[in-house]
Design brief:
6 helices; mainly alpha; globular
């Protein structure tokens, strides 16, 4: 399991550095599918990953190249701080099946939107 978790982190880190994604789109599905975590455990574990500044080095590279809006980042982080609490309260009241299907639906909608607006 150690190798699996390190591999998930590596894949998420690469995806984060390339696309700015990681938690919801990479870590949660891999924990649910590869590690066989229940949906809520996958979501909670993914959130716990971000307790430390795990994207610091990647963000620093983008900042050095002039590709970070610090004010926007801080405001988004403030919203994320509150929003993650609200979202976790909502999620904990849902069944794993409903949560997994809602998450899959979100991924399909986002993928379709990206595909058709490219």
């Amino acid at each position: 399991m150690i190798a699996l978790f390190l591999g998930i982190g590596l894949v998420a880190g690469i995806a984060s550095g390339v696309f700015g994604i990681g938690g919801g789109i990479v870590i949660v599905p891999l924990l649910a599918l590869a590690a066989k975590f229940p949906q809520k455990l996958a979501t909670g574990t993914s959130l716990a990953v971000f307790l430390l500044p795990v994207a610091f080095l990647g963000a620093m590279n983008y900042w050095r190249a002039g590709n970070v809006n610090v004010k926007a980042s801080l405001l988004i982080a403030a919203g994320l701080f509150v929003g993650s609490w609200v979202g976790s309260q909502l999620s904990l009241g849902m069944s794993d099946v409903l949560l997994r299907r809602a998450f899959a639906g979100l991924l399909v909608v986002v993928a379709a939107r990206l595909w058709f607006t490219a």
